[in-house]
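Reopening this one. Same input as before:
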Amino acid sequence: MKHVLILTASLRPRSNSDRLAAAFAEGAREAGHAVETISLKGKRLAFCTGCLACQKTGRCVIADDARAIAEKVKEADVLVFVSPVYYYSIAGSLKTLFDRLNPLFAGDYRFREVYFLSAAAEDSEEAKEGPKTAVQGWVDCFEEARLAGTVFAGGCDAPGAIEGHPALDKARAIGRAL
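Same output, byte for byte:
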């Protein structure tokens, strides 16, 4: 059994990206894995100041919700990042979290597999590749980890527009195959 941590960055109620996260979680639970989902909605995440104190202490000096999230990320076997696509990239809340996970670089971490799920109003190659590049850049900083898979749901603009989209089945299938 693996510990799967899903981090969702959409701030919109009933979001399409949150629905993708739920489909992945369903599949992973069906396969017998422990799944925890953390939404960044309502979380206090300050911007990284670049002080690099975390590289010496293994902990960020900023006291907000990122500290507890970083501990959960460190202990997870599988990470799943989920984001809406804004201006051909990830949501700002996810980028802020990536920056705040800097304390993990200097220590041990369990995760080896990282997945990325995204939903966008636009259904183009650019809408898919920009966010994937942002996530790949974060994953590349962790020598033991790899971006193991991605799911993109294009053409999903309004809340709930993802219902019936093949990306839901793909997310569920990847979760089930862990």
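So the earlier flakiness isn't reproducible anymore. For the record, The chain has a mean pLDDT of 96.
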